[in-house]
Amino acid sequence: MKGGPASGETAPIGTRREVRELLARFNTAPDGAAAKGMGTERLYGPGMAIDLSTSTEQVNQALVSVNEDDIAWPVLLRICKELKWKMVDLETGRSFG
Question: What is the dihedral of CA 47, 48, 49, 51, to 10 degrees?
Answer without folding.
Answer: -170
